[in-house]
Specification:
The complex is a heterodimer. Chain A is an alpha/beta fold. Chain A has helices at 47-54, 76-83, 101-112, 117-130, 146-157, 176-193, 204-210, 230-236, 240-246; strands at 9-18, 21-31, 36-41, 62-67, 70-71, 86-89, 164-168, 196-200, 213-218, 223-227. Chain B folds into 2 domains: 4-96, 2-Layer Sandwich (Transcription Regulator spoIIAA); 139-371, no CATH class. In chain B, helix 7 (199-237) packs antiparallel against helix 9 (251-288). The chains are: A alpha/beta, B alpha/beta. At the A-B interface, helix 3 of A face helix 8 of B.
Chain lengths: 255, 373
């Protein structure tokens, strides 16, 4: 199937550091086109650091990140080009607070497209409607609720029809209904945009609902101890740590 | 101490009897005292408890036991928890469970040499980051001049208004007061020679050459420099700056450039305004209190204040604008991701700006001295 084609993202022998200490060693995985790839693991195991390395915010300590076979951290102009294909949803939304929602969504379009002002407005209205915020373009981030902020931030992330979307703890701070809605949106986006999606989360419901591929980070051994479809990992893994995590500690040890 | 008593069940085993109320609100025995009593006998091998007389307890009891057990562990004395209430035992087990990884250790205080080396490396890093930042600003400026930078005019105008027009009341107040102070200080000496009219010269030259710019600079460092640092610091905390970076937008171009530009334009104008207000303050005191003729005062000011003085003052203002904006924006951009870090970066933005203003004033004065202006 996908095996013959080049993976969208490939991570090779990657070491992650936080300040002066290494948090993860020798990470190796591939993310194929159309995957909803989950990065899971306990708090403080380096999931968010990985996201920073993947999105160009932090140079890795060691190892390579390849996008369609091109080394991401080697050539800066290439990196900038690859970054244009990204959409990122940050944990807290990270909407620019001095901009209205419309301006937030419009900025990527104004920067990198040749659309006219009215076309940009039209696009903004569409993207905001896609996340259920049609008509909110003139609101400031401080005037809307946390769940709405997150959705607006998603509208910004998909403003430029990215082919890779990163989500950092998408359901953090959301009530179960809003979290579920966001999961549904992620699934729809993959379908509509054909995007590859990378989600950093430890929300079990989301992991099983949307993920079709994953890696599991273990803070203690400082490396990934499982990978593959989360449901299959749960069914087949013999590793007590993985099972404990995926069952909220209700089932300890291997079967 | 009725909450606690000791007896020896065997020569080497101490039984600690705990009774009564052990609640934070009702007070707890001094742990240090109890520990010193427990270990006053050197031959203790084991400690156990009798909690049958205990009435009500909360985490006060647990914290006391936690401290006591740690002390026992460090002295290799065995502890038997069996007789304690079940809840206490559970909490103690939870508290003693090691969660943190051993790798993440608190900073240990090294030798003198290590400390010096660390400081030197940190100083080197901060100089490098300042140089990088200045380089980024230069690049952003180049892009702006060539029309390739993303520049939001509306936001720029808002920043100009915030650091210009909105600062006027404060600058007025302080400048008038400084003018008044200069006039009074001058009057004390000049009265002895009957040359009070030269107050106009002192106030005029003092304000236009240095004081107007310095006062405006210090005010703006506290007002606008701090607000730049806090604003960008919070943007850093909220990942807003990360969001710009992943979009391929340089935060320096997008956030720093308009702020630097706004302050660099507004500072000389504020300086000019402060000069005028200072002279006005001097005039009010000289005519109102010291009884000088206002027309004569005005003429004296006109003849004393040369255009050179004004230019020197404006140069001060321009340089201070750069210093304040850069200190504020650099501290904001380099801010850590928590509330305390925002506070720290705001403080250092103001402190660094004020120190730099004083140093810059000294350097400009020295250069003027050499040039003979």
């Amino acid at each position: 199937m996908e095996k013959t084609s080049l993976p969208v993202i490939e991570v090779r022998h990657l070491d992650l550091n936080y300040d002066d200490h290494i948090v993860m060693r020798d990470l190796n995985f591939r993310i194929n086109k159309g995957d909803i790839f989950i990065v899971m693991g306990g708090s403080g195991c380096g999931k968010s650091t990985l996201l920073k390395v993947l999105t160009g915010l932090k140079e890795p300590e060691k190892g390579e990140v390849l996008y369609d076979g091109k080394n991401f951290w080697e050539d800066e102009s290439e990196q900038q080009k690859i970054m244009r294909r990204f959409g990122v949803l940050y944990q807290g939304g990270a909407l620019w607070s001095s901009f209205t929602l419309g301006e937030n969504v419009a900025l990527p379009l104004q920067l990198y497209s040749k659309l006219s002002a009215s076309q940009v407005r039209q696009m903004v209205e569409l993207k905001l409607s896609l996340v259920g915020l049609g008509g909110y373009a003139d609101f400031y981030p401080s005037e809307i609720s946390g769940g709405m902020r997150k959705r607006a931030s998603l509208a910004r992330a998909i403003a430029f029809d990215p082919d890779i979307i990163f989500f950092d703890e998408p359901s953090a701070g959301l009530d179960p209904i809003n979290a579920r809605m966001l999961d549904d949106l992620i699934l729809q986006l993959r379908e509509v945009l054909g995007a590859t999606i990378v989600v950093v989360t430890h929300e079990l419901a989301s992991i099983f609902a949307i993920g079709n591929n994953s890696v599991f980070f273990d803070a203690e051994s400082k490396t990934m101890i499982a990978s593959g479809n989360p449901k299959e990992i749960l069914a087949n893994s013999k590793d007590p740590k993985v099972i404990q995590f995926l069952t909220r500690g209700e089932r300890q040890g291997a079967y | 101490m009725d909450q606690i008593s000791f007896n020896y069940s065997s020569p080497n085993t101490l039984c600690i009897k705990i009774s009564g109320d052990w609640r934070i609100s009702s007070g707890l025995p001094a742990t240090e005292e109890v520990i010193s009593q427990v270990f006053s006998h050197n031959n203790i091998v084991e400690v156990n408890f009798n909690a049958s007389g205990i009435n009500k307890w909360d985490s006060g009891l647990v914290s006391f036991l936690f401290r006591l057990i740690r002390e026992c562990q460090s002295r290799n004395v065995g502890v038997d928890l069996k007789e304690l209430p079940e809840g206490v035992q559970k909490l103690l087990v939870l508290a003693f469970k090691v969660h943190e990884k051993t790798e993440i250790q608190a900073e240990t205080s090294g030798s003198f040499l290590e400390k010096v080396t660390d400081k030197a490396i940190a100083a080197n890093r901060s100089v490098l980051s300042l140089m990088n930042f200045l380089g980024d600003i230069a690049i952003a400026f180049g892009r702006l001049v060539t029309g390739r930078a993303y520049f939001r005019r509306d936001e720029f105008i808002v920043i100009v208004q915030k650091c210009g027009a909105e600062a006027l009341p404060l600058v007025s107040l302080i400048s008038i007061l400084v003018g008044i102070i200069l006039a009074f200080i001058g009057a004390i000496q000049l009265k002895m020679f009957g040359a009070q009219i030269f107050i106009a010269d002192i106030v005029g030259i003092g304000m236009t050459r240095v004081m107007g710019a310095v006062m405006a600079g210090i005010l703006m460092a506290g007002r606008t420099g701090a607000s730049f640092a806090a604003e960008l610091g919070i943007m850093q905390t909220n990942e807003e700056i990360d969001a710009l970076k992943t979009l391929g937008v340089s935060p320096v171009e997008f956030l720093v450039m308009p702020r630097v530009l706004a302050l660099v334009i507004m500072m000389p104008l504020l300086t000019l305004y402060a000069d005028f207000m200072g002279i006005l303050g001097g005039l009010i005191i000289s005519t109102g209190v010291l009884g000088l003729n206002p027309v004569e005062y005005w003429h004296h000011t006109q003849s004393a204040v040369k255009l050179t003085n004004l230019w020197i003052g404006l140069t001060h203002g321009f340089v201070f604008g750069i210093i304040i904006a850069i200190a504020g924006c650099l501290r904001g951009i380099k801010c850590g991701r928590n509330a305390a870090a925002v506070g720290e970066s705001t403080t250092s933005a103001v402190v660094e700006a004020i120190i730099s203003i004083v140093i810059a004033t000294a350097i400009i004065t020295f250069i003027c001295q050499i040039l003979g202006v």
